[in-house]
């Protein structure tokens, strides 16, 4: 599958090697071993219940998706696709689609029961770029980046709009145990967190649109994990369960430091516009938060928009001393009529913000 054109000009040999195409599943291993720098996954049908194994790509590989990539149906845990390597470009060609055809698994129960549903794409990439991908209708979790360093994800469209009534736990971009990962200029239409980060540092979520899901989230924090230097900026969260959120598990330990939410527009949020709570998995003031996860130097600036009448605009529910060094400014989230008591706001926080929380 390799075409080499060698041009001899005096003593100079110029070698132009073309791409290797994979349109049958049994061609993958050979493609990974070949010396072509470009691997094109083209109109591939992945058999049921097996991994599309794009791991350990040679450094410098460009992995392209072309046409429609589909998967057989089986109840299993997945992931359906794994991509790993260093100095890799992963990109979609115009018109391509990676189609999970998730409706075959969707039963309204997500990861909590019913059919066993495979997670979809997992990345473990260093010094790499992922761009221009179009992913549709995944059974559950869409796009997970774990143990990644220096990764840029740009212009990736995660579209589970068809899962509106039956898709669940279809988290969009999950980033964990990673350093220096940026997700930008992307769009997620799903039924769980649009973006979540449960461990890592120097993680950015910039200029993205989130529709239908559960907003932009840090956590759930526990297990002594650390999240530091995370920024979400210039994003819209539309028609979603929550807007922006930090959740830490009750009776567990972790650390959240230097998180910034800046220039976030919320629209038609159903439950909480801004929520920071230390009693996860509860998301109501029914039980007390615990103090094992300090939340230091949180910045919430220029967060504005609307919550539906049945929800609460802002809700902070933390044990005393957990929050420190917060800066809250220009927050105007309105429309929610539910007044929830707040707890554990640090001293000196914006007065309007405190009042919107309601009183204990
Ligand atoms: C962070 O990752 C990007 C690629 O997304 C890279 O260009 C940049 O140099 C990295 N920054 C550091 C400090 O390593
Ligand atoms: C807050 O936003 C609402 C509409 O979303 C607007 O009517 C109100 O004037 C804004 N308040 C401030 C202080 O900007």
Automatic annotation (TrEMBL):
One of its GO terms (biological process) is cell wall organization. GO terms for molecular function: polygalacturonase activity. This is endo-polygalacturonase. One of its GO terms (cellular component) is extracellular region. InterPro entries: Glyco_hydro_28 (IPR000743), Glycosyl_hydrlase_28 (IPR050434), PbH1 (IPR006626), Pectin_lyas_fold (IPR012334), Pectin_lyase_fold/virulence (IPR011050). PANTHER family: POLYGALACTURONASE. It comes from the Eukaryota. SMART domains: PbH1. The keyword Disulfide bond applies. Residues 1-19 form the signal peptide. Keywords: Cell wall biogenesis/degradation, Disulfide bond, Glycosidase, Hydrolase, Repeat, Signal. Pfam families: Glyco_hydro_28. Its EC number is 3.2.1.15. Belongs to the glycosyl hydrolase 28 family. It catalyses: (1,4-alpha-D-galacturonosyl)n+m + H2O = (1,4-alpha-D-galacturonosyl)n + (1,4-alpha-D-galacturonosyl)m.
